[in-house]
Amino acid sequence: METLEEAELCFPQINTSCKKRTRPQSESMFIYILLSFISLITVVLNLLVIVSISHFRQLHTPTNLLLLSLAVSDFLAGLFVMPFQIPITEPCWYLGDLVCVLYYVLNVIIVYASVINMVLISVDRYVAICDPLRYSTKITQRSVRICVVLCWIYCVFLSFLFLFDNLKQPGRYNSCYGQCVINVIVAVDIVLGFILPVSTIVVLYLRVFVVAVSQARAMRSHITAVKLQSSVTVTVKKSELKAARTLGVVVAVYILCYCPYYCVSLSSYDLMMGSSSNVFLVFLAYSNSCLNPVIYTFFYPWFRKSVKLIVTLEILHPQSCDTNMMKETTE
Fold this sequence. Notes:
- The protein is 72% helix and 0% strand.
- The protein is mainly alpha-helical and 331 residues long.
- The chain has one domain (25-219, 233-322): Rhopdopsin 7-helix transmembrane proteins (Up-down Bundle).
- The longest helix has 36 residues, at 231-266.
- The chain crosses the membrane at residues 29-53, 65-86, 101-123, 144-164, 184-210, 247-267, 279-299.
- It is found in: Cell membrane.
């Protein structure tokens, strides 16, 4: 019969094993069900975004290509990162040291890809609002594709740079057998992963807000003759402003979801792996990947229409990729 001390070990047969911390079964079940549900919803919703933008030619715009890249990072978060978050909420890690490090490598890639995509989206809106006459020449599909590729290459490089020591010797920072601990320079992570990109986003959107307000005042002050002459231009500006407002909501939700996690990291307060506080902060951060498609549903009529075509399998019809997605949703 096992002794009480052996029963509390993650690996009773190993003397250097970490000790278990018991959690009420009801609490464990709630965490498992909640994370599994969020993971499934995140995968499904972001897959709808990916299929929509990839399939319908009319949606192949520079802005939507950035949304596509963001949806890919959110999809990968739901498919790979969130499911592994379930064993991480437990006090013991049973998947081995190498899998632990690879999990964090993928985690860093996806998190950094999300925030850099947010920066690119902010730049796109900044140029569209502040320099609309040269937007079509500055922001092209080719330039956006190059930026997206460079974004993902940079994230992969950064993840290996951050975790090189951990990859070279997995498990070297574990204090006992059954831990999943990595060594990252927290200050560098906070600056590159949150403070710098979020500051850039906030500055760009403040500039967009100032220009949008000045444009709105200028529109109201137009004389009747000029108003008739520039009606097309005004419509375009309204469309760009609406897109900026929608993507501004996406950025704001991102900041609200990740801010508590990075604030705790910045305060140097050490949260125990598997604690309720740690689980909540991680849940809040990853829920952002699920919320983005929900925002598109409320603000983008073309997304609602594309989802309807996908669910009803009309997307399988020949020439469905040429469907007019904006016919009933003129902005």
